[in-house]
Known about the structure:
three-stranded mixed beta sheet; alpha/beta; CBS-domain; globular; 154 residues
Amino acid sequence: MSPRTISESILRPVEPLQVTDTVEVAVARLLELDVPALPAVDGQGRYAGIFGEREFLAALFPGYLRELKGGKFLSRGIDDALEKRDACRVEPIEPYLTTDHVEVDDDFSDAELAEIFFHHRVLVVPVLRDGRVSGIVTRREFFRTAGERFVHRA
């Protein structure tokens, strides 16, 4: 029998990043865990924000790129940006965190997750227990599980 809720089967326990972790450490963890983002916590273990794909790009590319509507005048290859911003590898992730608090408590519902993924367009939702990160749910896994149930329900 399937779990009662989608979230029961896809909640993924993770060790959060620390706000003092470097960009390089954070990116390596994302690649290692194959997730688009991870929650980060402060020195007291409290949820501080998210660092992921988008935040890495913000660290890698110059600040003015966020203000532009396009980057056609920039070099076509990523290697130039990697070389020019190599120093960001040792910068702490804290200034790059997305600090919008889009998280759920550990008693969340599938409908609550669906609403967050739909309205906030996030890739990961941190799950908190008593204000501490206990895991994440990724949009990819939520969709996959919901889609499989939908297709196989007939």
